[in-house]
What we know:
This protein is mostly helical. Helices cover about 75% and strands about 0% of the residues. Helix 7 (about 150-175) packs antiparallel against helix 14.
Amino acid sequence: MVYGLNRNQWIQIISAWLGWLLDGYTTIAYALVALTISEIFFPPSLKIGGIILTFAGLGVGALARSIGSLILGNFLGDKIGRRNMLIVTILGFSFLSASKSILPGYNKINILAPILLYIILFFEGMFAGAEYGGGSALAMESTPPERRGFVGSFVQSGFGTGYFIVSLVLAAIASLTGEKFDIIGWRILFATALIPGIIAFVLRTFAKETKIFEEMKEKNEIEKVPLKSLFKYAPKEIITGLLITTGLLAINTATFSFWPSVMQTLKYKETLIGISVAIINLISLFGVWFGGFLADIIGGRKKPMLIYAILFAITSYFLVYFGYSENLKTLLIMFSIQAFIEAMIFSTIPSFLSEIFSKKYRTTGVGFTYNGGAIIGGFAISMIYSLSFIGLLKAWILILYIFTLIMILGIILSKETWVKSEKIDFINR
């Protein structure tokens, strides 16, 4: 027994965590080399237009995630089981992620280059979209309510762990390839996505289905069309959840996914960028774990999330304004503090979303609500560059605060899903 959980529960939790690690690894791999590949997949003459279109690829993947969470969550996660779905999705996710490494550039196939890139990002996003809903449901249904704050933060930290690892991998590849990084280095980086994908697949073959889903099968409670019930019985939960995730994922895109480009704009080298963002992400891991631990002490999901969000709003202007610096020490300190606070907000998201939706359409609901937030949020960097005529720093701060307010509004309008003093477990609904 570890932290009150048995061996099988930890296998389920770690298998979900590994999927989120792969997501962080592949998403940030793309963000890390976005400025590099913008001149490979788009005409160099486009300049800022090519950068905007490259980062728009994150939005393409985000749109696909919502579709994937609905389709795969509806027909797999809520019908054949959380664990079975996750075995399918991790294979598609990892192989599509790695396939970007063999794509020809614009100089070889012209307009087909960005089209193929967007197609791969779309289908990669579909499999990734089902990962979050299935993984969260698998982990949260395997965990007692008083542990879900910390366990949820652990699952969520998989993304930051993937970010941390891929940043170090970038630094290593950039150091080994040197001036050839623009030719071959970024391709090697994308190809390495196969490694965490294979590890996650192997572990998931040993995981068991959750008791909640097995009981649903025995009692014949599995919905014929979970998607229909989701929109019929949980419209308010969908709306408030989407407000929260739209704001939070836009903030995340405009910070974690944007910092590498900010550093490149400030003329930092790839090796130094990789090491720096790895340090920032290491700090963020402590933030998400601390946020989950503190949430279990405070009790509830909404209250801790609101406290963390307000703290982020109060500090962000100062941290971004002074963090945008050619002084590496200042940059690291400011962005690390911001990463720590932002990660705290994410800590209760898995437990919160899993508890607001019924077990009958939980995988579909969690996946759609979380990934749906990225439909708009995934375009945050493109929005920043589109507004860069007012100054990159001003545009950055403006976008951050618009979406911070959207997130706080969603938290305020949402309902609490667990109270310490009440012995009601919404996960069994």
